[in-house]
Amino acid sequence: MDQAIMQRHLARAERHVTEGEAHLARQRALIRKLERDGHGSRAARRFLRSLEETQALHEADRDRVRAELRIAERARPSTNAFCR
Questions:
Q1: Which one has a higher pLDDT value, 12 or 75?
Q2: Reduced to 3 states, what is the DSSP secondary structure of residue 64?
Q3: DSSP annotation of 38
Q4: Distance (Å, rounded) from C-alpha 69 to C-alpha 58?
Q5: What is the 3-state secondary structure (H, E, C) of the chain?
Q6: Model confidence over 41-82: pLDDT tens digits?
Q7: Do residues 17 and 51 touch, judged by C-beta distance below 8 A?
């Protein structure tokens, strides 16, 4: 795969991870508020588990793209004049 495309994939994966962290924080805050105000939080906790599972997928995708980029960079011929 073209390295520029891989860099775009990585940027998108990083954005998904960052956005996911924000979603998780908001959901955890909502659960705390629900519980503090005496409301049930079962559905909110189920949704949190779903968000956590999705976040794990985003992180795995980011890590996979990072690994692919490292492999591609090692395989790319060096442009350093001293390595010729």
A1: 12
A2: helix
A3: T
A4: 17
A5: CCHHHHHHHHHHHHHHHHHHHHHHHHHHHHHHHHHHCCCCCHHHHHHHHHHHHHHHHHHHHHHHHHHHHHHHHHHCCCCCHHHC
A6: 999 999 999 999 999 999 999 999 999 999 888 887 766 555
A7: no
Contact present, 58 and 13 (Cβ < 8 Å): yes
Distance of CA 79 to the CA centre of its chain: 32
Among residues 16, 4, 1, 15, the alpha carbon closest in space to that of 68 is found at 1
- Return the amino acid letter for 63: D
Nearest to 53 by CA among 45, 63, 64: 45
Asked if residues 58 and 20 have their Cβ atoms less than 8 Å apart, the reply is: yes
Cα end-to-end distance, the chain, whole Å: 25
Q: Which has the closest alpha carbon to 32: 45, 19, 50?
A: 45
